[in-house]
């Protein structure tokens, strides 16, 4: 089995982003990512700091908009303001959101042209229709990792475990758009292990530490572990039980250092693409 090195893929992507950002700056465009933070959650704050650091390192300005105890109207107003601001090219809205507010409810106020993390359901609809759009960065990271492994996705059997609108569904649509034969599993799927064992490409996006064990994996399969589950000692583990699956899988993404760094790199790539868009309109 070989590990798929997410950090190496992210480094390659970020080098391309840095070159694009430098060119845009020479043309007088400062690629800018706005991050709306409607929470005081410490985990979110850590993630936002890491996005900002990565963005600034590659030449992208990062505008963090922290909202203190906001209601839905305040979040919507901020997203509308940023959508209308020509100096802002990419917009993401962090979770957790206040009680009773969902990302699909507020995501619709992010202009699709700036929706670099695919939070607007219009973006998901365009993805389903096979049209050009920004897919959620994590789902896009799944596909990027597979493509960089030179896998033949056309005709491959792909199983995605998880059907959320941020990861499972868009990952399934991206795989379908590559002509894979896609099965989407969820909490009501019967005999999940048997369905997963059919997969040439298995994507785990559940949020349950180590639930994908050796008996879910066909020998030689490529396994992408999207799960990030905090451990008691402050670490992170994936949805895949690495120790039992590694001897069976052909290729496997570790957690950490798998999907996570590629997700961040793709948010940045989407932002430079968004910064190019006004030139093509
Ligand atoms: P959600 O909780 O929104 O969705 C989880 C999905 O898993 C649901 O579709 C649910 O099914 C399904 N599920 C739950 N239990 C089971 C089970 N026992 N068997 C089969 N399916 C099950 O999570 P997200 O999609 O937001 O995130 C998934 C994981 O990915 C999490 O660990 C999250 O932290 C991680 N993540 C990682 C990112 C990264 O950059 N690396 C970014 C975003 C997320 P049902 O729909 O029936 O309830």
Automatic annotation (TrEMBL):
- Write the protein's name: Bifunctional protein FolD
**InterPro entries membership:** Aminoacid_DH-like_N_sf, NAD(P)-bd_dom_sf, THF_DH/CycHdrlase, THF_DH/CycHdrlase_cat_dom, THF_DH/CycHdrlase_NAD-bd_dom
Give UniProt keywords alphabetically. Amino-acid biosynthesis, Histidine biosynthesis, Hydrolase, Methionine biosynthesis, Multifunctional enzyme, NADP, One-carbon metabolism, Oxidoreductase, Purine biosynthesis
By which gene is this protein encoded?
folD
Cross-referenced Gene3D superfamilies: Leucine Dehydrogenase, chain A, domain 1, NAD(P)-binding Rossmann-like Domain
Q: Which family does it belong to?
A: Belongs to the tetrahydrofolate dehydrogenase/cyclohydrolase family.
Task: Write down the chemical reaction(s) this protein catalyses.
Answer: (6R)-5,10-methenyltetrahydrofolate + H2O = (6R)-10-formyltetrahydrofolate + H(+); (6R)-5,10-methylene-5,6,7,8-tetrahydrofolate + NADP(+) = (6R)-5,10-methenyltetrahydrofolate + NADPH
For binding NADP(+), which residues are annotated in this chain's numbering?
A: 162-164, 228
What is the annotated quaternary arrangement, including any partners?
Homodimer.
EC number(s) reported in the record: 1.5.1.5, 3.5.4.9
Species source reads Glycomyces niveus
HAMAP family reported in the protein's UniProt record: THF_DHG_CYH
Where does the source fall among the domains of life?
Answer: Bacteria
Q: What does this protein do?
A: Catalyzes the oxidation of 5,10-methylenetetrahydrofolate to 5,10-methenyltetrahydrofolate and then the hydrolysis of 5,10-methenyltetrahydrofolate to 10-formyltetrahydrofolate.
What are the residue boundaries of the Tetrahydrofolate dehydrogenase/cyclohydrolase NAD(P)-binding domain, all occurrences included?
136-276
Identify the PANTHER family for this entry: C-1-TETRAHYDROFOLATE SYNTHASE, CYTOPLASMIC, C-1-TETRAHYDROFOLATE SYNTHASE, CYTOPLASMIC-RELATED
Pathway listed for it is:
One-carbon metabolism; tetrahydrofolate interconversion
Q: Where is the Tetrahydrofolate dehydrogenase/cyclohydrolase catalytic domain?
A: 4-117
Q: Does the keyword Protein biosynthesis apply?
A: no
């Amino acid at each position: 089995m070989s590990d798929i090195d997410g950090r190496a893929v992210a480094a390659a992507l970020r080098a391309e982003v840095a070159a694009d950002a430098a060119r845009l700056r020479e043309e007088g465009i400062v690629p800018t990512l706005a991050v709306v933070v409607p929470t005081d959650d410490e985990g979110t704050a850590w993630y936002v700091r890491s996005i900002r650091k990565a963005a600034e390192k590659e030449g992208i300005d990062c505008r963090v908009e922290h909202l203190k105890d906001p209601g839905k109207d305040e979040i919507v107003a901020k997203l509308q303001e940023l959508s209308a601001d020509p100096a802002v090219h990419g917009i993401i809205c962090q979770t957790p959101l206040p009680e009773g507010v969902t990302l699909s409810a507020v995501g619709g106020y992010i202009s699709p042209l700036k929706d670099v993390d695919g939070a607007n359901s219009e973006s998901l609809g365009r993805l389903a229709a096979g049209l050009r759009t920004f897919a959620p960065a994590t789902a896009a990271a799944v596909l990027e990792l597979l493509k960089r492994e030179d896998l033949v996705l056309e005709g491959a059997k792909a199983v995605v475990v998880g059907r959320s609108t941020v990861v499972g569904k868009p990952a399934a649509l991206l795989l379908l758009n590559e002509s894979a034969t896609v099965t989407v599993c969820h909490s009501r799927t019967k005999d999940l292990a048997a369905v997963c064992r059919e997969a040439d490409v298995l994507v785990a996006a559940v949020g349950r530490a180590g639930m994908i064990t050796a008996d879910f994996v066909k020998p030689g399969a490529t396994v992408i572990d999207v799960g990030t589950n905090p451990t008691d000692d402050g670490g992170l583990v994936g949805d895949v039980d690495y120790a039992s699956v590694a001897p069976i899988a052909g290729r496997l993404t570790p957690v950490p250092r798998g999907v996570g760094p590629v997700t961040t790199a793709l948010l940045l790539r989407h932002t430079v693409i968004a910064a190019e868009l006004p030139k093509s309109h």
